Input
Amino acid sequence: GAVVSQHPSRVICKSGTSVKIECRSLDFQATTMFWYRQFPKKSLMLMATSNEGSKATYEQGVEKDKFLINHASLTLSTLTVTSAHPEDSSFYICSAPLGQGVNGYTFGSGTRLTVV
Amino acid sequence: AQSVTQPDIHITVSEGASLELRCNYSYGATPYLFWYVQSPGQGLQLLLKYFSGDTLVQGIKGFEAEFKRSQSSFNLRKPSVHWSDAAEYFCAVGRNTDKLIFGTGTRLQVFP
Output
C-alpha cells in the first residue's frame, strides 16, 4: 500500500522547452507532496512542499517561476521545469508523508531529466 | 535548525567485514529517523526506521540501527557486509507530515 507513481522515469528535452513530471498517489490521499532534486553523487535537496489546494512552499534559493508546482487534487502533484537548461539536468523525486498514526514517507521512483 | 550529518562521505570495506555508518541529527522535537539505500540510477529503498520504543531497530537485508538520544545519533550497522550492499546510504529525519531532511550520504564500496 501507499504507493506513489512518478512519471516519466526518464526524459530528454531540448533547451528552452518545458517538462512536466507527475506524481500520483495510487491508494491513498496525499495532501502533501515533497519535491526533491538530486545532483549526481549528491544528496536529496528539498525543493518545495506542495499542499493540495494551496500554493507550494519553496525552499530558499529555489526559483518558483522556474519550477512550477501544482497540487490540484489529493492524488496528483506535478512539477514543471520551465524553459529548461542543461543545468536543470538532474534526478527529481517526489515523496508523500503517510501521516500521523501511520508515520513514514513513500517515494516515487524518480525522474531522470536530461536537457540537451 | 533541523539537520542531518553523515560524517563519512565514502567508506570502503572488505566483503564479510562489519560495517557502521554514522549519522547525527539536530531536530527540535523527538525525531523520526530513517535509513535509506540507493543503488546507482535508482530510487530510494527504506532500510529501517525509528519512531519510538526499543532504541535498537532491525531492518531489511540484515541491517540494524541504534538510536542514542544523548548523542543525537542513529548509526547504521551490519555485522557482515555483502558485495551487493555497495550503494549510497542516506540517513534522514522527519516527523509526521513534516518534510524529510536527508544527510549528505555515505557511499559504500565493498571489495571482495
